[in-house]
Design a protein that fits this description.
single chain, 223 residues, alpha/beta, 8-stranded mixed sheet, 9 helices, 30% helix, oxidoreductase activity, STEAP_metalloreductase, P5C_Rdtase_cat_N
Length: 223
């Protein structure tokens, strides 16, 4: 219990396919987790009870207010209506991907000079953005976990312009059952997006690092 209290508190925004899985693996790793969707938390009480036992359903503002890390797991097509003030001053993990066939064409994300998390960061200028967990399927997130040191433990990339935030989230990734490969900028996080060298790939740490190093590093000053 003492260790649990020392871990960052996590708020998961989104109770669709992705949010409950993230909440479940985080709870299994010892984190205290709240889940929020739009509206009254009673609307997602049954979802959390069944799909993420131990998670606390809360109003989004309340969940964020008590959280050290906010996991943004909403459908991307809803992001343009997301209120930046809700997560101002917070560390936000962007797990979203831009999929026009699913989300429809979203004008906000059509500027291909930027990666999707860079666009999220521009939309949330008072938040610190970390990109991760977007390049593995939510349906694999639970089954692919392995203890540290396992020869088949999968690697996941963690990208941010803020190294402290990146390292904090990388610790979460390690604790839930993956090796974290740290990338030094959100621009480098473009390598984690659909079409990138590691998107959807189940790679060990060395293979993952080699795959991202083999690609030309995006220049964050020249989008």
């Amino acid at each position: 219990m003492t260790e649990e209290l020392s871990l960052p508190r996590i708020a998961v925004l989104g109770a669709g396919h992705v949010g409950p899985v993230v909440a479940r693996v985080a709870i299994a790793a010892g984190y205290r987790v709240a889940v929020a969707a739009s509206g009254d938390p009673e609307r997602i009480a049954l979802i959390t009870q069944v799909l993420a036992p131990g998670a606390e359903p809360r109003r989004a503002a309340d969940a964020v207010a008590d959280a050290d890390i906010v996991m943004l797991a909403i459908p991307l097509h809803r992001f343009p209506a997301f209120d930046p003030a809700l997560v101002a001053g917070r560390l936000v993990v962007d797990m979203m991907n831009y999929w026009p066939p699913t989300d429809g064409v979203q004008e906000m994300f059509e500027d291909r000079r930027y990666g999707s998390s860079e666009i999220v960061a521009r939309r949330l200028p008072r938040s610190t953005i970390v990109k991760t967990l977007n390049h593995t399927g939510y349906h694999e997130l639970e089954s692919e976990r392995r203890p540290a040191g396992s020869p088949d433990r999968r690697a996941l990339g963690v990208a941010s312009d803020d190294r402290g935030a990146r390292d904090l989230v990388a610790d979460v990734v390690e604790r839930i059952g993956y090796d974290a490969v740290r990338l030094d900028s959100l621009a480098a996080g473009r390598l984690l997006e659909p079409g990138g060298p590691v998107f959807g790939a189940s790679l060990r740490r060395v293979e993952f690092a080699q795959a991202v190093r083999a690609e030309p590093a995006p220049d964050p000053t020249s989008p």
